[in-house]
Amino acid sequence: MGPGLRAIPLEISRAELSFLRFTLEAHEGLALIYGDGQGRVEVICPAERFSELWSLLLELRESIDFTLIAPSPPADSEA
């Protein structure tokens, strides 16, 4: 991963992944999803937007089913 980027690994089903992808696209420039199609993906964002992405993922956990894998929340987060 390049400098200035942060990643959050997730386990998520294909159906839920479609919704997550759609949601992230609506937040232009917030993050990209990289994965191998086996249910484990990385949500990658610019380091300066990590707190924003983290907050969004915490909100989305109420709507879609995914597991944060060894997350490292931002210092100002209420993980």
How would you characterize this protein structure?
- The chain is α+β, with helices and mostly antiparallel strands and 79 residues long.
- It is 30% helix and 28% strand.
- The protein has helices at residues 14-26, 50-60, and strands at residues 5-12, 32-35, 40-46, 66-68.
- The mean pLDDT is 87.
Summary?
The chain is an alpha+beta fold and 79 residues long.
Coarse structural class: alpha+beta
Shape: globular
- Largest sheet properties: 4 strands, antiparallel
Strand order of the largest sheet: 2-3-1-4
Bin the helical content: 25-40%
What keywords describe this structure?
79 residues
Produce the secondary structure layout.
Layout: E1 5-12, H1 14-26, E2 32-35, E3 40-46, H2 50-60, E4 66-68
Antiparallel strand pairs: 1-3, 1-4, 2-3
